[in-house]
Write a structure and sequence with these properties.
The chain is mainly alpha-helical and about 350 residues long. Helix content is about 50%, strand content about 5%. It is built from 12 helices and 8 strands.
Length: about 350
Amino acid sequence: MGKNLLADKIQEEVGCYTNYLASLEGKPTDIRVITNISTSNIICSILIGHRFEYTDTEFQDLMNKLGTLASDHQNVSLVHFFMWLRHLPGDFFNAKKISVNMNAIMDRLNKFLVEKKRHIEDTNEVSTLIDAYIVERNKKLKAGISTTLNDRNLLKIMIDLFMAGTETTSTTIYWCILYMLHYPVVQNKVHKEIKSQIGTDRAPTIQDKPKLTYLNAVITETQRLASIVPLSVSHLCSEEVALGEYVLPKGTYIMPNLDSVLHDKTIWGEDAMSFRPERFIDNNGKLQVPEQFIPFGIGRRVCLGEALAKMELFLFLASMFQRFQFLPPSPSSVPELSYVSGIVLSPKHYEVRVVERK
């Protein structure tokens, strides 16, 4: 699927999302779940070819289970490394709860697969990822080539897309809005840039991205400071490797500490833990992103969804800041910049007033 087609799908969803925010009429609301559902709809469009209404209770239940799965991972990692802990009575590490939720998620995604799977003879019929997967599998089977492209592995890909393609993007948006409540001057500056470069008569498009330097800097600073996946994902040494004075044997688990780079004062200055988008703008007013900006990881195993995430973040946030002002529930009750850790570092649930601009 080309970038233009993806941008169109994202923009369609952004329109539904901003219309929903407008319907809140400025009442204090926690937008986390609806943001999660909206970003998931983009994955659904890619996977099965359609989106779900925000009122769909079955889809809401799936999103709640995915969210719970993400937050419940705070302690369960201990069980991965000390497997004898699984035999303790009770469910102190939430491992059993995670297993139940994962099975429920797999059952629901399998229903999507069964409902949408069809036999395809002509590759021109491909319109979703499931179609493309089955076409490729059929090609191999007809050629007598052994393949692991089976329903089980397709289901695993679907789960990976939902987990990695939903939670991270929606959490970054959630962080960005929280930062705007703490830095209203930044929010006003973003709106002013959008108004001068695009106006308010049409929604921002992906072609507008080079025009909105300050918004891009705000998004980049949000990713840097929030650092929602501080230990990236676990990797495995495929061979013995020397790292400085250390020798890492083949099979060693590697957990890269992205915070050690993204929050390093020698790189970002003494104000490394402050929200300052200007650090990504050079003296000529151009966006400047140093190589140490690595929220998606680095190297051959960099995040596969980086391009999609960047596109989503820009289109969602550009439309949100163009149309709305985000305010705390009251001037004296700005939500704290505190977080809970799970698969991602997410802000603690907070409420925000989404006020439509005139």
